[in-house]
Design a protein that fits this description.
With 304 residues, this protein is mainly alpha-helical. It is built from 16 helices and no strands. It starts with a helix and ends with a helix.
Length: 304
Amino acid sequence: MLGRRILRIKAFKTVYSFAENRSMTLKEAAAQLNKSCEATRDLYLLMLSLPVAVTAEALSRIEAARGKFNPTEEERHPNLRFTNNSIARILGNDTEFNSILKKKKFSWDQSDVLLRHLYENLKQRDYYRRYMEAPECTPRMDAQLWVKFFEQELVDNPDLEPILEDMNIWWNDDLAYALTRACKTVEDLAKGKQWEMPELYQSDMKDAPGLDDDSAFVHKLVERAVAGYDRYCESIAQRTPKWDLSRICTTDLVLIACGLAEWELYPQTPVKIIINEYVEIAKFYSTPESRAFVNGILDKLINK
């Protein structure tokens, strides 16, 4: 499930924690890394359960409208296409999926405000209206609806953010990745594939033969970067004589340390790829000037 880009981000965050708390041991760093990686899969599971919860909210609204003293014709005979969508039905009936959710105590039962807002917003969307008015309905169309929902309704959602923050401190920044995996899953369900708990690392997945061991990659990366952090900082200081090391932001030091650690561990990987990976991470987690700084220092130190 977790690819190399997000594993590098996980490693970077773990090493950053070490840089901010130098009393952290390698064992503690490894434990934090494991929690962070597992949390991403947990967030994927929680997001994948939303179609069932939102569909249930819609059905509850329809039943309440039918029970009015004097319902309208539309309320008496509602369009049930959404409430009958195949994706929610498949997930709702999947014993393994629901057993895992129950074991992890993942539920939207206490998030009625969020579900109400999600359904109300969904009904206003053009893609929802086209879905409801289409002359036919297929599992593929059901999946496309939920893909749109995952892409457009959840990122930067002011109702969702505090809920996720309260549930798990490791879910910061992982939502987009978890939603991407959820989109892939609903598309697979529409093709008739049965849901399976995804392996945590892509190298362990059945459809990814030949990949290197991703677990070993990220754990070795953190171990090397933590163990060699002081050495890497000294190398950076030598290459930036006009700068006091304390003036360089910790984020940049950690990114460069991770880049050097990966190059030492995997010298067969093209240098350009390693540098580009950490420059890309710098775009999102450091200052506007960090991209050029990380690129330049890594290039000088590796090529030296």
